[in-house]
Amino acid sequence: MAASNKRPHRDPGGGRNAGGGSCPICGTASVARYRPFCSKRCADIDLGQWLKGVYRIPVDEEPAEGETGPEEGGYREGEGE
Fold this sequence. Notes:
It is elongated and about 45 Å long. Residues 1-18 have low confidence and may be disordered. The chain has a domain at 13-55: Erythroid Transcription Factor GATA-1, Chain A (2-Layer Sandwich), CATH 3.30.50.10. By secondary structure, the chain is mainly alpha-helical. Helix content is 16%, strand content 0%.
């Protein structure tokens, strides 16, 4: 194989706005490497928000019998934070 096949593709525009959208955290142009974000920092901020429970996927299911959620006291102090 030629050495040129092993090199990563470089966007002539520097990777900016590669996805055609903007960063959902700060609103600047997205970068292909961190798409849909503009940087590792914004990607990490988004991950932190998921881990803290800021983002939630709504469900219509009731908890199973004997199962409780965090709002019902199902977690011990210090868990889930």
